[in-house]
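user: Kindly work through both lines:
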Amino acid sequence: MLNFDKISIQEMSKEDMLLIIKALEYTGLNTKNHDYLALKDSFIKELSLLSEIPEKDFLDYLQKETQSS
C-alpha cells in the first residue's frame, strides 16, 4: 500500500465535495456525534483555502456550481 500524508482533491468533483459535506452534517446531527460536524467544518475550511473563497461563501459557491451542471 502506498504511504501518503495528504490526499489530492484535484480529481474530486464539486458534486462529490458537496455530497461529503452534506453527509458529514447529516450524520453529525442525527447521531449527535460532534466529531462529524468538526470534520465537516475542517473540510470546508481546507477547501475554501484551496479555492481562495471565504468559508462563509464556500457552500453557496458549491451549491451554485452543482446546480448549473
The mean pLDDT is 87. The chain is about 70% helix and 0% strand. The two ends are 35 Å apart (CA to CA).
